[in-house]
Amino acid sequence: MATWLKDAIFYEIYPQSFYDTNGDGIGDFNGITAKLDYIKSLGCNAIWMNPCFDSPFSDAGYDVRDYKKVAERYGTMEDIENLFAEAHKRDMHILLDLVPGHTSEEHAWFTESKKAEPNEYSDRYMWTDGWLCGGAGLNYIAGESPRNGAYIVNFFKCQPALNYGVLNPTERWHKSMYDPACIATREAMKDVCRFWLDKGCDGFRVDMADSLVKHDDENKSGTVAVWQDILGDIHAEYPESAFVSEWGKAEQSIKAGFDMDFYLDWMGNGYNSLVRDYEAHLNAFASLPESLDDSTENNSFFKADSKGTCDHFIDEYMGRYEQIKDKGAIALITGNHDTTRISYGLSEDELKLAYAFLLTMPGNPFIYYGDEIAMSFRSMASKEGGFTRTGSRTPMQWTSGDNMGFSSAPADKLYLPVDPAENAANVEASEADQNSLLNTVKTLTSLRHSQADLLDKSNLEIISRKPLVYKRGNLLLAVNPKNTDTQSRKLAELTGDAKVIYSIAINGTQPGIADGVITLPTQSFVVISC
Ligand code: NOJ
């Protein structure tokens, strides 16, 4: 595993919306370079940048037209190489976003694959063998090309699925995952990885990593085998490269060779029960109201006045954690470009406690740009395939000045409108306010970097659930996110040597330890060295 991962805290950047340096209304590579010192000041020493490759942007760049070319809107190859170099100078690392399961329908491979005449790329994608032949359980598009077949899609219509084969072919058009054409797809993806690692990136976040082998791969043994091959080679050639999967089942992804897997809630793993447990908003696929008002039932554990517990999360998380803790990691996120902003359902005070938890758990945490200042989720028209997700992809708010410091372009030329609210959060104001969420994030990240026990990924023990008390080596951590009651508990770990090394007391009363009992006033968090 890459040595730099040990104390990496990631910052996710949606490049369109981060910082525009050439005044065209859209963020660019030079904008990220210009803000590296800010990111570092937050305590984040690693970046995941959403796709930045040549693309028609029908799915915000997750529809890649050329894996080896940067999208012009972000700058040049020199600019991105400079970004890598400047990051490395600051001891920071950058993951690009690898989209291995599909390309854009405008990719040259697909242009060839669509042709009626057989050619080198005919089997690069999954095609049925008849013009109106269904996908045998897989989503397909027919009638779009002269080829006598329909193609399987991985996501949107514009994203034809690359062909990694199937475990046990049952249709005439199925190819075995060991067919030379499917092996060629894997080799093409290794080639993309090598290309960017040679340019200076430090690894990849991998999109829909579990989606490669289709049809009968329910337990993912086929997809795991494909990744073992790809990552086996790449890790051997680039031992300091890191790979993070969008998979949702760490026990499979780590076996596949990933360094870590995101803890995403598609499969009901309890993540949303912590911070996004409100009806109809459990994912970003539904339509959302402008804001969550008091009439909305919000059962999130970190909602101060909710009855929500951490049970669902702990039950699910610990099962997965125990299986992978010695081999890889689970990455907890504040949110990402697909989720509603975490601030949609939680206030800044509630976020302080939620971040305290997320930033002190094992595995590498990910902060989504703007979540450090509680940027708002806003309902807005879809942009580039974002649909509801667009509301979490708006321009970063740097200052209270024009376009909130994001760009010097006229407001109507911006990628998305900046937050029109008079009191919209911004970095400048947050930095100046000692009590801001941003400054709490900074103290939490520096706590994490300074405590070896917080960096160890295999030492988590849950001691109690109410209050939530967890142990990381010689550190005992506890949180009471509720504003309803003080929570206390006798703990064998609290010997005479125990001392508080960090605390958050939203309502002014500090957590305490006395006579072996931990007391957590309403809305408080504490770290105790034992
Ligand atoms: C997951 C990505 O996070 C999402 O933004 C994208 O639309 C789909 N995969 C398809 O690539």
TrEMBL record:
Glycosyl hydrolase family 13 catalytic domain span: 12-448
One Gene Ontology molecular-function label: alpha-amylase activity
Domain of life assignment: Bacteria
GO biological process, any: oligosaccharide catabolic process
Annotated CDD domains: AmyAc_2 (cd11348)
Pfam families given in the database record: Alpha-amylase
Gene3D superfamilies: Glycosidases (3.20.20.80), Oligo-1,6-glucosidase, Domain 2 (3.90.400.10)
Family listed: Belongs to the glycosyl hydrolase 13 family.
Official protein name in the record: Alpha-amylase
Organism: Coprococcus eutactus
Organism ancestry: Bacteria, Bacillati, Bacillota, Clostridia, Lachnospirales
